């Protein structure tokens, strides 16, 4: 069957199991959009307000499902607008295929209208990228893009398609199935045996896990391991939702904004078993004591990159744990457990003390907001955050239970991530998303309210409105003698009116009663609802690392 | 850990942009390159890149792992310095004057260099050898007036039947 390049793109996307794409049209992709129009019964295109929103939506789609998210943009500014979204996915290992149009091959390199070297621009933030200059390679290149995106440690792949390749015709033979990922790498038996020896002789083991547990589908095995060797667990930001918050041995997030118990236990352990994590600088150790480290990850390049481990094991985490667990002796560590209980008690005491400091009249506390919203939300609702104080409060306080129900920009820390991601997640699952955001982050991409409303997205956006850019302000308090340069938002934005103007619903809450009423209404509503919560600008994110230089 | 020079051979797909990907990785991750050369191989679809850099074991391993991650990189190997033929090519233009000509010719002979262009005012010498030999020759030519020069950077290949091939295709 001889068809146009544009049709080959659409047919290949369908062949690869892609049912939804997020995008924004433009001159160099009109042929592709024409084919999307003609095939709209088989593939759904969701028009976002901005290409960045499309990239984040594809990312949210991927995080909520584990499938490859797809976004489409035109050449030049369309393509560059995707970049932050692609980089966000790259830093958090999210499988994405980004398709960009480009000027016809004959115009490439001439600074033509809306021409940009998007291959060059995205090289550092993609797993791989392609430009297709020959239509004969188009279908297979797209298949490779999907294959690379979902293999091993997932990540984004960009495919740039000049306009003349979209209009040229070539034979297309659909494949019966989507491409399969490259074969997994399995951990070496010898190394697993050595890991077992180290674990069996440890008195104070600590499991530090990350997003690899979610993408490697190893939650069950992780809990089995923890159970068998009686080890407490702490997670990176990306690892949250991999285990239920109330699992007795789970101490919550570690790192500079983590839980005190988790942070301290990690530093007092004699052995850290790091699973599907990359030892980001945010999960800092910060002590003089160096415990032994076993590090298992699917990406060999992460081993001994940020932290040199005593034993580094490359391999699929699910398989590695499956084979490791039977090698381990059933253990109990009464003293260590006792110490963990002490740390938990100390954490509660610290939280109480901090709570006393910050209560303000006419404002809600982060605890109140999260517990009230949680009381109305269901366990299946997908929690999305933007970036800043509200993100850390959500990570610290929201009781997450199921993998893939917590979407946050961990590595890149992209303010403005949330709206797009929430739309993508909701589109993918049909479930409600709850977006926790701040007035700073929300202001970055609130244009995507237009998309949410047009899609009738079941979305509750909760704004922690404190009139400041709180995370930066916290740093300024400490390091700039409280000179708040550019972090005080002297804005008069009325988010309730914004909601209404976009066709969404909204309300403002400054006390628990109001918030309860609004939450009731918001969660009963089928579309998009904004709750603007007044929060004191004195609220700060607690850190277990009180004396650090961070 | 001890710093030394490493020479690695990298087999890559011969596709557009591959040099940017490889050199970009070094820049991005803050690794310094002493020199990098690229050229065709015995198989049409692949190019071979030779990179020399200074570092310790740790830096070396990080570089290898990051290179292996690149989709277009098919094979990476650290070449054993004791068992590798390393060569560099120098073209150097020196001022030609009756007073110095004979000295230059003598040095050229001793170094097994070749004069490949001769004009009344300038000589071009060609020299192949290991980096240290090239350095020594340049040093020797300095007093005679180096007008311009260029060197290729090293290419390297292991002795014996040990070959860097695309054994494991991604």
Short description:
The complex is a heterodimer of chains A (550) and B (170). Chain A contains 21 helices and 20 strands. Chain A is an alpha/beta fold.
Structural overview:
The complex is a heterodimer of chains A (550) and B (170). Chain A is an alpha/beta fold and 550 residues long. Chain A contains 21 helices and 20 strands. In chain A, strands 3-2-4-5-7-6 form a six-stranded parallel β-sheet, sandwiched between helices. A six-stranded parallel β-sheet of chain A has the order 11-10-9-12-13-14, with helices on both faces. A six-stranded parallel β-sheet of chain A has the order 16-15-17-18-20-19, sandwiched between helices. The model of chain A has no long low-confidence stretch (mean pLDDT 95). With 170 residues, chain B is α+β, with helices and mostly antiparallel strands. In chain B, strands 5, 6, 7, 8 and 9 form a five-stranded antiparallel β-sheet that branches. Chain B has a four-stranded antiparallel β-sheet with strand order 2-3-1-4, with helices on one face. The model of chain B has no long low-confidence stretch (mean pLDDT 93). In chain B, 28% of the residues lie in helices and 39% in strands. Classes of the chains: A alpha/beta (550), B alpha+beta (170). Chain A binds chain B through residues 119-120, 123-124, 127-128, 131, 148, 182, 299-301, 303-305, 308, and chain B through 16-17, 20-21, 24, 28, 58, 61-62, 65-66, 68-72, 170.
